[in-house]
Amino acid sequence: MNGKGLLKGLGLTFRHFFATYLVDLFDKNAKKRRGTIDADGLFTVQFPEESLVIPEEFRVIPFLIYTLDENNQRKYRCTACGICSKVCPTQCIWITRKKDPETGKPVTESEEFYIDIDKCMNCGSCAEFCPFDAIKMDHNFKIATYVRGETHILPKEKLGRPLEYYAKIRPNNYAAEEAERAAKAQPAQV
Amino acid sequence: MSDSSIQIEPSSADSTYNDLIAQFPGLIEMETRPGFTGVVVSTVAIRKVMLYLKEQCGFDYLTSLTAVDDFPEDKIELIYHLYKTTGSPIIELKLFTTRESPVVPSVMPVYPGADFQEREVWDLFGVHFEGHPDLRRLLLWEGFAGHPLRKDWKEPLFEEDVKPFKSRWPEGKGIHRESLNPFNDNVQYPKEFDPNGFTPDNDESVYKILQSKIPAGSDDLKVEHMIVNLGPQHPSTHGVFRMAALLEGEKVLALKPVIGYMHRNHEKIGERNTWLQNMPYTDRLDYLSSMSNNFGYALAVEKLLGIQPPERAEFLRVMMAELTRIASHAMAIGFLLNDLGAFFTPSLYALEERELILDIFESVAGSRMMCNYFRFGGVVRDITEADFKQVKKLVEDRLPRKIDDIDLYLTENEIVQARCEGVGVLTAEEAIAFSESGPMLRASGVPYDIRKADPYSIYDQLEFDVCYRQHGDVYDRYLVRLDEIRQSIRILQQVIKYMPQGPIQTGKVQYAVRVPAGEAYGRVEGPRGELGFYVVSDGKANPKRYHVRAPSLMNCTGLEKMCVGGKIADAVTILGAVDVVLGEVDR
Lengths: 190, 587
Fold this sequence. Notes:
The complex is a heterodimer of chains A (190) and B (587).
Chain A: H1 4-26, H2 30-33, E1 60-68, E2 74-76, H3 83-87, E3 93-99, E4 106-116, H4 125-129, E5 135-138, E6 153-154, H5 156-159, E7 160-162, H6 163-169, H7 171-189
Parallel strand pairs in A: 1-7
Antiparallel strand pairs in A: 1-2, 1-5, 3-4, 4-6
Helix pairs in contact in A: 6-7
Chain B: E1 2-3, H1 13-23, E2 28-30, E3 39-41, H2 46-57, E4 61-69, E5 76-83, E6 91-97, E7 103-105, H3 114-125, E8 128-130, H4 204-211, E9 225-230, E10 233-234, E11 239-240, E12 242-248, E13 251-258, H5 266-272, H6 278-283, H7 290-305, H8 311-340, H9 345-365, E14 374-375, E15 378-379, H10 385-410, H11 414-420, H12 428-433, H13 439-443, H14 450-453, E16 466-467, H15 474-498, E17 518-526, E18 529-537, E19 545-549, H16 551-555, H17 559-563, H18 568-578, H19 582-586
Parallel strand pairs in B: 3-6, 7-8
Antiparallel strand pairs in B: 1-16, 2-3, 4-5, 5-6, 9-12, 10-11, 12-13, 14-15, 17-18, 18-19
């Protein structure tokens, strides 16, 4: 017990303490490095004023992609095949298929599409196995509400996001999917 | 610090089986069902066979003990997995009993590590173990009716046996579970039970066991004994964990861990899920190292499927598993110091590095903690060039530096040494007997590491040492973790250097995997020890049995031994060094 180890440790905490303030003082770029691999001074950022970059693959709560047709009506990509509700580990998705009003035959469109976001565990399986790229995982994690219960069962209208939104939050995935689709369409044209 | 590792013997488990059959004629038969291995032992002989295996053959380690319910047949199987800590293949013993009156001899006299596992099987399957000294329910409360892992047990609000639930798709309209009255519809009472006349047990059974340990006849000094509950709601218990301790002054005379506060019957959920749906659920076991959990489950199911992931996927898997180990050990070290009273400075230094690793997980897998990254025969997605550079920079530049910092900061600190050295000692024999694993086992001087002893994935191609220490105290557990971080960095540097190009998935990922009938035990060296998944398939879309051999739970077996005789303040330190994660303990 001679205190040498203690002093060494204290030296380290002092180094951290001074770096916290001094690096910021002398290096204008230090603030940008916070929370990254190059951080040398202060490590944390002041959320919610500042926030870190959200990586593309980040996932919370699925959304349904739609495009607007000429009448400004939403056209969902979803064909109500039901794969997402089958793979969902918590079984939080339920779908009913729309029927043609004249013939009564089922059409490739969903009548109802609900996700219970209280149950959803953000695993991303629905997005992974959707054959039509119709359901994708969102980036918006600020979804706290004051109430729970029925309001957390989101209907199709609330789940819908325009295709442009998807292209914005996941540019690489979007580009890759579009390229694949173009490649698939190519032989048909020839 | 490290030595040449233990390698698995070339001889297969079959020679042991043949030896057993020759030794115990008429009592042991080979397992004949296709896809299943091991030998079937008759109930009367099990303890004799175990004793023979331990004393004569050197199988000193009981790793997993579990049961399978063969409903509607009147049969419950008990499955024991054993190996030698000096390196051997796993041997598997089975025992059949009836569902009507399941009574089997306890193997606790031979393997004390069977303690919690036998209690768990009693709790969830209702198999009575004769000769177990403390056969109480482990995870559920004493007044619970029924044994939930039996196939015919149905919970309140039961929907269907297996997912996908037809009641929710396509014609069903979901109901919000919480809208059902929590004091009415979701409670089931056994017949002839009057809830109004019920008085709960109030843990009398735990206290009775503790009080029985009060030593008699020490009346030269008047001593008042006291029972103190540490937890379940206390920051030092790392979750909802409770230690009921019998104290004499500050000295611990007896201590019983009380668990199950976060029990959700992961295994029953797992048996209702399809094979793939289980993957995100495994993340929630040991939530600090979800990549390792994925790894173990993927290995077990791949054994059944008979597929191998492509090389790049193997490299990615090892990369993620080792990053997880670093993150988890860094946190273990940081929070051990918290338990010692060094509030948050060390743990925040450790959390900084963990944060950077979680950033990589977030970018690659999509989530920081619930990664869900592994698939059968590969991984979900490839690592991007930018992320790969990040990992490279992290393991080649930043992490070695920062780990040296933590070393400098804590290892020679006199207070850390005074509080940790000689505290919570487990000898090598005790550690093996209690089925401790991972850093707990290696700190006691047993250099057993599954990555070397039974190499899975690409660990046989990588160069690293097995870290172990001799004293088996809290300080050595800390040092072993520090050493293991360094070895993980070494592994990562090789992974980065030799990372091949190529596909990351064998075939296409199927959401409805058809798994051939059979059984498999897949195990990985997780940050906390041996994480084993025992899965049984009957060829359907859902597992027939899905069992998790949780290292955190098994490491708690030795908790009483480590704490007794020490001060109550050290119990907190010891628990911190065991590094329990309650998501895994309670399952």
